[in-house]
Amino acid sequence: MPDQTIPATPPSSEPQSGAVPTRKYVENKPPRGLYVRVFIYVIATHVLLAMMSLVVIAANSR
User: Fold this and answer.
1) Per-residue pLDDT for 12 more than 70?
2) Cα distances (Å, whole numbers) of residue 18 to 7, 8, 9, 38, 40
3) Is residue 54 within 8 Å of 60, Cβ to Cβ?
4) pLDDT top residue among 23 and 55
5) What is the b/e burial string over 6-43, where b = at least 16 CB atoms within 10 angstroms of the residue's CB?
6) How far is residue 41's CA from residue 50's CA, in Å, rounded to a whole number?
7) Which one of 8, 16, 39, 50 counts the least CB within 10 Å of its CB?
8) Half-sphere exposure of 16 (CA within 13 A, CB side)
């Protein structure tokens, strides 16, 4: 094993010709799946509350 390691790409002080400068990726929006899950949970909660209300109304009417 050699004592010195050779880097895969040598560092250069100037950008390569034709290379697009890399931009840092910043995620500033929540993932789309989060909106879908929240929507489903809200709908499911409303449906559950409506069904429970119907059960209570049916039980009180007897």
Assistant:
1) no
2) 22, 20, 17, 44, 47
3) no
4) 55
5) eeeeeeeeeeeeeeeeeeeeeeeeeeeeeeeeeeeeee
6) 14
7) 8
8) 7
